Amino acid sequence: MKKLFLSIFLIPTVLFSGNDNFNIGGRATGMGNTGLCIADVWAIRYNQAALADVNSISFGASYESRFLLQSLGIQSLAIAIPTQRGTFGFNYTGVGDNLYRESKIGLGYGMKLSEKVNLGIRLNYHSLNLGNNYGRAQNLSFEIGFLAKPTKNIQIGFHLFNPSQTKLNDYQNEEIPVVLNLGMAYKFSDKVTGNVEVEKDIDLPFSIKIGIEYFPIENLYLRAGIITNPSMPTIGFGVAKGKFKLDFSSAFHPTLGITPSLGLRYSL
Protein backbone atom coordinates (compact mmCIF):
# COMPACT_ATOMS: atom_id res chain seq x y z
CA MET A 1 0.00 0.00 0.00
CA LYS A 2 2.84 2.40 0.84
CA LYS A 3 4.54 1.74 -2.51
CA LEU A 4 1.23 2.38 -4.31
CA PHE A 5 0.78 5.66 -2.43
CA LEU A 6 4.31 6.72 -3.33
CA SER A 7 3.79 5.85 -6.99
CA ILE A 8 0.61 7.91 -7.19
CA PHE A 9 1.52 10.93 -5.09
CA LEU A 10 5.23 11.17 -4.27
CA ILE A 11 7.05 10.07 -7.44
CA PRO A 12 5.28 12.62 -9.69
CA THR A 13 6.24 15.33 -7.20
CA VAL A 14 9.89 14.25 -7.38
CA LEU A 15 9.80 14.15 -11.18
CA PHE A 16 8.50 17.68 -11.53
CA SER A 17 10.59 19.28 -8.81
CA GLY A 18 13.84 17.38 -9.04
CA ASN A 19 17.17 18.16 -7.42
CA ASP A 20 15.76 19.07 -4.04
CA ASN A 21 18.26 20.25 -1.45
CA PHE A 22 18.14 16.93 0.42
CA ASN A 23 18.96 16.71 4.11
CA ILE A 24 22.06 14.58 4.68
CA GLY A 25 24.65 13.59 7.26
CA GLY A 26 22.68 12.03 10.10
CA ARG A 27 23.48 14.73 12.69
CA ALA A 28 21.23 17.62 11.65
CA THR A 29 18.54 15.19 10.52
CA GLY A 30 18.25 13.91 14.08
CA MET A 31 17.66 17.49 15.23
CA GLY A 32 14.69 18.23 13.00
CA ASN A 33 16.93 19.05 10.01
CA THR A 34 18.31 22.10 11.82
CA GLY A 35 21.84 22.49 10.49
CA LEU A 36 22.32 26.22 9.87
CA CYS A 37 24.64 26.77 12.83
CA ILE A 38 26.50 23.44 12.93
CA ALA A 39 30.18 23.74 12.05
CA ASP A 40 31.20 20.34 10.71
CA VAL A 41 31.87 18.82 7.29
CA TRP A 42 28.13 18.81 6.47
CA ALA A 43 28.07 22.62 6.63
CA ILE A 44 28.84 22.35 2.90
CA ARG A 45 25.14 21.41 2.60
CA TYR A 46 23.34 23.36 5.34
CA ASN A 47 25.20 26.66 5.55
CA GLN A 48 28.51 27.24 3.80
CA ALA A 49 29.25 30.15 6.16
CA ALA A 50 29.66 27.63 8.99
CA LEU A 51 32.47 25.98 7.01
CA ALA A 52 34.71 28.84 8.11
CA ASP A 53 34.62 27.43 11.66
CA VAL A 54 35.83 23.97 10.58
CA ASN A 55 39.50 23.93 11.60
CA SER A 56 40.68 20.50 10.43
CA ILE A 57 40.46 18.50 7.22
CA SER A 58 37.25 16.49 7.50
CA PHE A 59 35.48 13.81 5.49
CA GLY A 60 31.86 12.70 5.56
CA ALA A 61 29.75 9.93 4.06
CA SER A 62 26.05 9.31 4.61
CA TYR A 63 23.11 7.26 3.40
CA GLU A 64 19.41 7.92 3.93
CA SER A 65 16.73 5.34 3.12
CA ARG A 66 13.72 7.51 2.33
CA PHE A 67 10.63 5.70 3.60
CA LEU A 68 12.71 2.49 3.50
CA LEU A 69 12.56 2.41 -0.31
CA GLN A 70 15.77 1.49 -2.11
CA SER A 71 14.81 3.54 -5.18
CA LEU A 72 14.71 6.68 -3.00
CA GLY A 73 18.00 6.07 -1.20
CA ILE A 74 20.14 9.21 -0.85
CA GLN A 75 23.93 8.83 -0.93
CA SER A 76 26.25 11.70 -0.06
CA LEU A 77 29.98 12.39 0.25
CA ALA A 78 31.63 15.53 1.59
CA ILE A 79 35.04 16.98 2.37
CA ALA A 80 36.11 20.19 4.11
CA ILE A 81 39.61 21.64 3.70
CA PRO A 82 40.53 24.66 5.87
CA THR A 83 43.12 27.20 4.69
CA GLN A 84 44.51 30.38 6.19
CA ARG A 85 41.82 32.52 4.53
CA GLY A 86 38.82 30.22 4.76
CA THR A 87 37.53 26.68 4.28
CA PHE A 88 36.74 24.93 1.01
CA GLY A 89 34.10 22.22 0.80
CA PHE A 90 33.07 19.64 -1.77
CA ASN A 91 29.88 17.60 -1.78
CA TYR A 92 28.22 14.97 -3.97
CA THR A 93 24.63 13.87 -3.38
CA GLY A 94 22.69 11.36 -5.48
CA VAL A 95 19.26 9.76 -5.29
CA GLY A 96 17.37 7.22 -7.41
CA ASP A 97 18.13 4.18 -9.54
CA ASN A 98 18.75 3.32 -13.20
CA LEU A 99 15.22 4.45 -14.17
CA TYR A 100 15.35 7.80 -12.38
CA ARG A 101 18.55 9.34 -11.10
CA GLU A 102 19.26 12.86 -9.93
CA SER A 103 22.53 14.16 -8.54
CA LYS A 104 24.14 17.37 -7.34
CA ILE A 105 27.84 18.17 -7.19
CA GLY A 106 28.84 21.30 -5.29
CA LEU A 107 31.96 23.29 -4.49
CA GLY A 108 31.67 25.72 -1.57
CA TYR A 109 33.73 28.20 0.39
CA GLY A 110 33.29 29.78 3.82
CA MET A 111 35.25 32.69 5.22
CA LYS A 112 35.26 34.89 8.30
CA LEU A 113 34.43 38.53 7.62
CA SER A 114 35.11 39.27 11.30
CA GLU A 115 35.22 37.41 14.59
CA LYS A 116 31.43 37.45 14.70
CA VAL A 117 30.32 37.21 11.06
CA ASN A 118 30.92 34.47 8.46
CA LEU A 119 30.00 34.39 4.78
CA GLY A 120 29.69 31.35 2.52
CA ILE A 121 28.84 30.47 -1.07
CA ARG A 122 28.43 27.29 -3.10
CA LEU A 123 28.20 26.52 -6.82
CA ASN A 124 26.23 23.45 -7.94
CA TYR A 125 26.00 21.23 -10.99
CA HIS A 126 22.62 19.49 -11.19
CA SER A 127 21.90 16.44 -13.31
CA LEU A 128 18.69 14.50 -13.93
CA ASN A 129 18.70 11.22 -15.87
CA LEU A 130 15.64 9.22 -16.93
CA GLY A 131 16.24 5.62 -17.96
CA ASN A 132 15.32 3.91 -21.21
CA ASN A 133 16.52 6.93 -23.22
CA TYR A 134 13.75 9.20 -21.91
CA GLY A 135 16.15 12.08 -21.55
CA ARG A 136 18.61 14.03 -19.48
CA ALA A 137 18.74 17.55 -18.09
CA GLN A 138 21.47 19.53 -16.35
CA ASN A 139 22.14 23.07 -15.19
CA LEU A 140 24.08 25.21 -12.72
CA SER A 141 22.85 26.95 -9.58
CA PHE A 142 24.33 28.63 -6.53
CA GLU A 143 23.54 29.22 -2.87
CA ILE A 144 24.68 31.64 -0.19
CA GLY A 145 24.87 31.60 3.59
CA PHE A 146 25.58 33.88 6.55
CA LEU A 147 26.42 33.10 10.16
CA ALA A 148 26.45 35.67 12.96
CA LYS A 149 27.75 35.06 16.49
CA PRO A 150 26.54 38.02 18.59
CA THR A 151 27.39 36.25 21.89
CA LYS A 152 29.28 33.12 22.87
CA ASN A 153 25.99 31.27 23.42
CA ILE A 154 23.97 32.51 20.43
CA GLN A 155 24.44 31.95 16.71
CA ILE A 156 22.14 33.17 13.94
CA GLY A 157 22.20 31.54 10.52
CA PHE A 158 20.74 32.37 7.12
CA HIS A 159 20.84 30.29 3.94
CA LEU A 160 19.33 30.80 0.49
CA PHE A 161 19.30 27.94 -2.01
CA ASN A 162 18.97 28.74 -5.74
CA PRO A 163 18.20 32.48 -5.48
CA SER A 164 18.47 32.79 -9.28
CA GLN A 165 15.42 30.45 -9.64
CA THR A 166 17.34 28.29 -12.09
CA LYS A 167 15.44 25.45 -13.77
CA LEU A 168 16.82 22.18 -15.01
CA ASN A 169 14.81 22.46 -18.20
CA ASP A 170 12.57 25.39 -19.18
CA TYR A 171 10.78 23.42 -21.90
CA GLN A 172 9.62 20.64 -19.57
CA ASN A 173 9.43 22.93 -16.53
CA GLU A 174 11.77 20.74 -14.48
CA GLU A 175 12.40 23.00 -11.53
CA ILE A 176 15.10 23.34 -8.92
CA PRO A 177 13.41 24.64 -5.75
CA VAL A 178 14.15 28.02 -4.21
CA VAL A 179 14.47 27.56 -0.44
CA LEU A 180 15.20 30.08 2.32
CA ASN A 181 16.23 29.11 5.86
CA LEU A 182 16.59 31.42 8.86
CA GLY A 183 17.39 30.18 12.33
CA MET A 184 19.20 30.42 15.64
CA ALA A 185 21.21 28.11 17.89
CA TYR A 186 21.39 28.67 21.63
CA LYS A 187 23.93 26.94 23.85
CA PHE A 188 22.19 26.38 27.18
CA SER A 189 25.29 24.77 28.69
CA ASP A 190 28.32 22.72 27.71
CA LYS A 191 25.99 19.73 27.44
CA VAL A 192 22.83 21.12 25.78
CA THR A 193 22.32 23.07 22.53
CA GLY A 194 18.95 23.99 21.04
CA ASN A 195 18.17 25.00 17.45
CA VAL A 196 15.12 26.61 15.89
CA GLU A 197 14.71 27.38 12.19
CA VAL A 198 12.08 28.57 9.74
CA GLU A 199 12.15 27.21 6.19
CA LYS A 200 10.29 28.59 3.17
CA ASP A 201 10.19 26.89 -0.21
CA ILE A 202 8.63 29.46 -2.55
CA ASP A 203 6.16 26.81 -3.76
CA LEU A 204 5.28 25.40 -0.31
CA PRO A 205 3.99 26.65 3.07
CA PHE A 206 6.36 27.71 5.84
CA SER A 207 7.95 24.93 7.87
CA ILE A 208 9.18 25.34 11.45
CA LYS A 209 12.01 23.09 12.64
CA ILE A 210 13.15 22.64 16.24
CA GLY A 211 16.00 20.46 17.45
CA ILE A 212 18.09 19.73 20.52
CA GLU A 213 21.43 18.00 21.12
CA TYR A 214 22.35 16.62 24.55
CA PHE A 215 25.86 15.52 25.54
CA PRO A 216 25.23 13.35 28.66
CA ILE A 217 28.58 11.56 28.82
CA GLU A 218 31.86 11.63 26.96
CA ASN A 219 31.62 10.45 23.32
CA LEU A 220 27.80 10.15 23.29
CA TYR A 221 25.29 12.63 21.84
CA LEU A 222 21.49 12.34 22.02
CA ARG A 223 19.30 14.30 19.59
CA ALA A 224 15.63 14.97 18.95
CA GLY A 225 13.54 17.36 16.89
CA ILE A 226 10.23 18.20 15.26
CA ILE A 227 9.33 19.45 11.78
CA THR A 228 6.03 20.96 10.64
CA ASN A 229 4.34 20.78 7.22
CA PRO A 230 4.16 17.83 7.38
CA SER A 231 4.51 17.16 11.08
CA MET A 232 7.46 14.80 11.58
CA PRO A 233 9.31 13.99 14.82
CA THR A 234 12.96 13.03 14.59
CA ILE A 235 15.37 11.27 16.93
CA GLY A 236 19.02 10.39 16.72
CA PHE A 237 22.30 9.80 18.46
CA GLY A 238 26.00 10.22 17.82
CA VAL A 239 29.00 8.23 18.99
CA ALA A 240 32.58 9.51 18.89
CA LYS A 241 35.63 7.26 18.81
CA GLY A 242 38.94 9.01 18.32
CA LYS A 243 38.79 10.91 15.03
CA PHE A 244 35.60 9.13 13.93
CA LYS A 245 32.02 10.17 14.63
CA LEU A 246 29.03 7.99 13.78
CA ASP A 247 25.59 9.62 13.52
CA PHE A 248 22.25 7.85 13.25
CA SER A 249 18.79 9.39 13.00
CA SER A 250 15.22 8.60 12.03
CA ALA A 251 12.33 10.78 10.89
CA PHE A 252 8.73 9.59 11.13
CA HIS A 253 6.26 10.69 8.43
CA PRO A 254 2.61 10.28 9.53
CA THR A 255 1.64 8.56 6.26
CA LEU A 256 4.78 7.29 4.53
CA GLY A 257 6.59 5.94 7.57
CA ILE A 258 10.17 5.92 8.77
CA THR A 259 13.24 7.43 7.11
CA PRO A 260 16.48 6.26 8.76
CA SER A 261 19.78 8.03 8.09
CA LEU A 262 23.36 7.02 8.85
CA GLY A 263 26.39 9.32 8.66
CA LEU A 264 30.10 8.94 9.27
CA ARG A 265 32.54 11.80 9.90
CA TYR A 266 36.32 11.68 10.12
CA SER A 267 38.62 14.57 11.05
CA LEU A 268 42.39 14.56 10.66
List the helices and strands and how they pair.
Layout: H1 2-16, H2 27-30, H3 43-46, E1 58-65, E2 73-82, E3 87-96, E4 100-112, E5 117-130, E6 135-148, E7 154-161, E8 167-169, E9 174-175, E10 179-187, E11 192-201, E12 207-217, E13 220-227, E14 232-241, E15 244-253, E16 257-267
Antiparallel strand pairs: 1-2, 1-16, 2-3, 3-4, 4-5, 5-6, 6-7, 7-10, 8-9, 10-11, 11-12, 12-13, 13-14, 14-15, 15-16
Structure notes:
The protein has 268 residues and is mainly β. The chain has one domain (26-267): Outer membrane protein transport protein (OMPP1/FadL/TodX) (Porin, Beta Barrel), CATH 2.40.160.60. Helix content is 9%, strand content 56%. The protein contains 3 helices and 16 strands. The protein has helices at residues 2-16, 27-30, 43-46; strands spanning 58-65, 73-82, 87-96, 100-112, 117-130, 135-148, 154-161, 167-169, 174-175, 179-187, 192-201, 207-217, 220-227, 232-241, 244-253, 257-267. A 14-stranded antiparallel barrel has the order 1-2-3-4-5-6-7-10-11-12-13-14-15-16. Strands 8-9 form a two-stranded antiparallel ribbon. The longest helix has 15 residues, at 2-16. Residues 1-18 have low confidence and may be disordered.
